[in-house]
Design goal:
The protein has ten helices and no strands. It is mainly α and 255 residues long.
């Protein structure tokens, strides 16, 4: 996969990923110490969980989506995509290889975060420890299912409409799914509105993939049926975003 190797090497040489690695590894241990959590030892581990996953979300939504959009735009603008197209690599394969190169940096960050949450913030109670592996695995799985399609969307949009549109569009959808949908839900509980209800129904419910509070309050792992339904739901969104990304993606500028 020549385009994958080229994209991966380009991202690697820019070294911006180093900042994300240092943040993901260091901030979960530094922030709790300099915060009020240091005054109460029992709050250190919960604060570490919040810091770890919040850092991962921030790094992914800012650096990850920006990098994906930048690579998608560069592939079309520099003529690199057109060259690889002449060698027999179709638009769909180009999209996949660029996506895989970016995802290869995001996935280790997510695994590292889950590892910190598992080994550096494990509860003391035996009953709570038994569910910790399951809950961290669930969170990691849902996180990757949410982030993967957003990276592809950023690449597809950026290749056709430019890097700013690719980054801002994917970031806006992510923030809306994580936070905006919750505000809309609260609004509908106060006053029902048919149009807003329709918008809410088709909105991506990314907030369900954020299990930080479940870890923080030690609520236990998700029931198997609930986790399965959430996986199917996000796989459905993945399929939709893959179709949209493939439709938007182009390997060369229009003439």
């Amino acid at each position: 996969m020549p385009l994958f190797r080229l994209t991966f090497a380009t991202i690697f040489q820019r070294k911006a990923w180093v900042i994300c690695v240092l943040a993901v590894i260091g901030l979960p241990f530094v922030l709790p110490v300099i915060s009020s959590a240091s005054e109460n030892f029992t709050l250190i581990k919960p604060a570490r969980i919040q810091a770890a996953w919040a850092t991962l979300w921030i790094c992914t939504l800012l650096w990850g989506l920006f990098t994906a959009a930048k690579q998608g735009e560069a592939n079309a603008k520099t003529g690199m995509g057109e060259y690889f197209f002449t060698t027999g690599i179709s638009n769909g394969k180009q999209l996949f290889q660029i996506w895989l190169a970016v995802f290869a940096f995001i996935a280790p960050l997510a695994i590292c975060t889950a590892g910190i949450s598992q080994f550096a913030a494990t509860p003391g109670a035996t009953a709570e420890k038994s569910m910790w592996w399951t809950l961290n695995f669930q969170y990691l799985t849902l996180f990757l299912l949410v982030v993967g399609p957003l990276l592809a969307l950023a690449i597809g949009l950026a290749s056709r409409f430019g890097g700013i549109v690719g980054f801002a569009g994917s970031l806006g959808i992510a923030l809306y799914g994580l936070y905006g949908v919750g505000y809309l839900d609260n609004l509908l509980k106060i006053e029902s509105h048919p149009m807003l209800q329709s918008i809410w129904l088709i909105s991506p419910q990314y907030r369900f993939a954020d299990l930080t509070q479940r870890l923080y309050f030690k609520d236990g792992a998700l029931p198997a049926a609930a986790f399965r339904d959430m996986v199917f739901y996000f796989v459905g969104i993945l399929a939709i975003y893959c179709g949209v990304s493939r439709f938007c993606f182009r390997a060369k500028l229009s003439t």
